[in-house]
Design a protein that fits this description.
Layout (H helix, E strand, L loop, with lengths): L1 H11 L4 H14 L3 H7 L5 H12 L21 H7 L1 E7 L2 E6 L5 H7 L4 E4 L1 H6 L7 E5 L4 E8 L8 E2 L32 E4 L4
Parallel strand pairs: 3-5
Antiparallel strand pairs: 1-2, 3-6, 4-5, 4-7
Helix pairs in contact: 1-3, 1-4, 2-3
Amino acid sequence: MAREVAEILVGWGKLDAQALDRAVNLQRASGERVDVILTRLGLAAEADVARARASHLDLPLAEPGDYPAEPVLADQVSIEFLRRARVLPLADRPDGLILAMADPLDRYALDAIQPTPAVEIHPDDLAALGLADGATVAVISRRGRIVLEARATRRVSRGSVFIPFHFREAAANLLTSPVLEPHAKMAALKVCAVRIESDRQD
């Protein structure tokens, strides 16, 4: 994924191919992500890398007006953790916590904020399936099956579910298709049809 972020920068004219090749060679030797190498060596501006990450992950980029006047969850989250994880809570809403993250691929921060994988499902859909918030469910597509916790939320529409992509133990990409679309040459890794079943072990 970090390579795709770098290729976006090349497409935008913010990174030349020679600098990308240098970063890729260093990545092979060190195991460090290409996008991190680019900023560490000054080959790409942090702001450009942040915009490219946001574009690739289809996430909004936090703007100055998004930052709260008063700290959010100051009594629940230590400043030390926020500094170490490079995370800032922007808003605590009934449908979820809104965060600004310096690196939305940072496993340490993601695991600390949401340590277990979950599928977000509309409460009415959960009720129709006879399932409760927190139930263990199987999410099944034509290509695969993963098991994770159901989380009731109105952030998703009825008839749709959302699964974060970054958990190895419940990898959403096992459900999607790696086949390239013939015109854009992109894989359909973000959307697919699934069904939800209880995975309760009696």
